[in-house]
Amino acid sequence: WQVISTAGTTVSAALSPASQRRQSRHTAQIRKHATSATTRHMARRDRARRRATMNGWGGCWS
Question: Where are the domains positioned within the chain?
Fold first, then answer.
């Protein structure tokens, strides 16, 4: 992530301010989407682990 964002800012800095602004908004959208996707995935895995523990296979997950 760090490398990509640094490269993106370097490229957009060479472009006009308008496109730079658009680039930053686009990057923010991507980051926001990635964060929400990760959170959703973590929640799903957490729910699966809880269900497995209820079923009595807690040992598989610990």
Answer: 2-55
